[in-house]
Amino acid sequence: MNKRNVLLAAPILLLFFLLAWFLWPESEEDKKIKALKTQALRAAQAANPASGEYRQFAADSKSLFTEENMYTYAQLIEMARTGRISLIAELWKLRQKCDSRGATEPTKEQASEAAPAPKMNAEECNLRIEAFIREQYPAPDNEKLLKLFRDYLRYEDTMRRFILPENLSVEERQQQIKKKRREIFSESDAQLVFGYEEARTDTQEALAEFIKSSAALPANERVQKYFDLRKKSLGDYNAAYTESEPAYTRYETELMLRGDEMQRKNSAAVETQQMREKYFGRDAARRMAQVDKEVQQERQRIEAYEAAAQKFNQQNASLSEVERKTKLSELRVSLLGKDEAEAYERRMQYEEYLRTNNLK
């Protein structure tokens, strides 16, 4: 091909490739990417208070997140300060609303050239939460909450990339995380966001050490010192922790603290019943004692069966496997009853499954 022909063919080839580029159908993946880019651009424009779209974006965002009887700023901060709510949990409640709502509605032109709008992405959700905070709370409170929110976004991004050394103890890991938090948040803000979680962790460590070192104390003194230490360690969070603590958890804690002395005095049955009456009332304590009795009777029946089964196997080693299983089944029913015998057999099959698969 001579130079003249090449020059004539070049524009035709260029035109062909341009037509192919524009006319080639988009793949579904291309459409999704295009829709996501369009969504992010529109959301960013709408979230800018200087843009003409902002008022509608702000109104839509407030409608998305607003509920009846929402906390005021003062209520929100006070409840976070005392551990009655978690600001992180409140944020995730808002984010869940993003999951239930699609992305910003496209214009007619955008709808005609894009795939169906994808679910709202994280960037738009965060922009909508910012708009909601700005609209829901008056200045300067809204700016304080916005700072907390933006700092938390920075913290999330930091922790995604933060790798802790593998050889750290649990306590050392916790200290590293606390330090990293305070590189982003002020101390007061870190207390608002993470204070209750950190106080509970520190308290659990202090109480575990107390339990190990206090076994020789008189039971009444041990119980009193345990709850005094917990109250002091939790500080402003103690009331919220105590209010949410189930009665059965507190009962089990006191039972554990008194256990060493009850064992020394051989007084477990009497003192356990007294504590049950203290925490649950006399009628409930009586029902719990009846359950204890039934459980003990069941345990005795099982022990009697297992002893009889062992003796039977020793005396009937020549029986076939089928005959042995049949006789043992009859023995179980006679000693345990039909329902209890079937439950025992299911439990033995499950334990055999765990052993066979190295799960126990």
TrEMBL record:
It is found in: Cell inner membrane. Residues 288-325 form a coiled coil. GO terms for cellular component: plasma membrane. The keyword Endoplasmic reticulum does not apply. InterPro entries: Lipase_chaperone. GO terms for molecular function: unfolded protein binding. Pfam families: Lipase_chap. GO terms for biological process: lipid catabolic process; protein folding. Belongs to the lipase chaperone family. It is a single-pass membrane protein. This is Lipase helper protein. Keywords: Cell inner membrane, Cell membrane, Chaperone, Coiled coil, Lipid degradation, Lipid metabolism, Membrane, Transmembrane, Transmembrane helix. The keyword Coiled coil applies. Its main location: membrane.
